[in-house]
Amino acid sequence: QVQLDESGGGLVQAGGSLRLSCAASGRTFNSYAMGWFRQALGKEREFVARITWLAGSTYYADSVKGRFTISRDKAKNTLYLQMNSLKPEDPAVYYCRSEQDGKSYWGKGTLVTVPS
What we know:
7-stranded mixed sheet; single chain; 11 strands; about 55% strand
């Protein structure tokens, strides 16, 4: 079983920065790739960024390219999302996801609020 715990969300003014973390635990953690998704109120969950665990290849949604950076610390089994230049359209619950053995595991999410 894999457990994912997100943290780092909060309230930040437009133009500000936040760093989200996702700590993975469990004896069977063996991720192929991890990613961040977000779900705003009344909207569907959408892809934000993805990173392959071993090679570190990264992929971003167009809406966050140049502003967000995904990274991982393999020694700590922790995923990060550095979010800069936050915009009023970025508020959402941010979830991390781990892909392994053909399955997806999700965390419970962390809330990011950007007052308009």
